[in-house]
Amino acid sequence: MNKPQPKPAPTPASNAQAAAPHQQIKAPQSPWFAAKRYGIGWGLPITWQGWLVLGGYLALLLAGGAVVEIASHPWRLPFFLLYVLLLSALLCYICYKKGEKFALRWGGKP
Questions:
Q1: CA atoms within 13 A on the CB side of 106
Q2: Which domain of life is it from (predicted)?
Q3: Is residue 33 within 8 Å of 98, Cβ to Cβ?
Q4: Nearest to 84 by CA among 52, 99, 53, 62
Q5: Does 16 reside within a domain?
Q6: Alpha-carbon distance 17 to 32, whole Å?
Q7: Does residue 68 lie in a domain region?
Q8: Tell me, what's the pLDDT at 101?
């Protein structure tokens, strides 16, 4: 007759691994946008993700301008301005979340 073998008592290290397998240590990510040396805000992107965001922003601006055709329909101008404002706000939000710290700088290390 086969008797079931008792399981070994769990160790504290194995309990910690079993309790939170989804919690992994994340490596610090580099910012997508560098802070400006003078003033407030961000400069050009410094990673490929930042360039992708900036390229998407410009492409959406051009596409919106082509769709609206302000020259032939001047009453569409307020809608286009609202579109530009919303896209710009989205770009600023992404820069805030993925860029270097937002602060006033006046030379020195950014």
A1: 0
A2: Bacteria
A3: yes
A4: 62
A5: no
A6: 33
A7: yes
A8: 82
65 compared with 54, residue with greater pLDDT: 54
Torsion of CA 47, 30, 57, 78, to 10 degrees: -150
Give the per-residue SS3 of 41-58: CEEEECCHHHHHHHHHHH
pLDDT at 100: 82
Rounded average pLDDT over 48-75: 87
CA distance 81 to 21: 48
Domain count for the chain: 1
- What is the residue range of 89's domain? 55-98
pLDDT of residue 62 exceeding 80, the answer is yes
Separation CA 26–CA 74 (nearest Å): 51
Q: Is residue 94 part of a domain?
A: yes
Instruction: Confirm whether 85 is domain-assigned.
Output: yes
Place of tokens 């329909």: 73
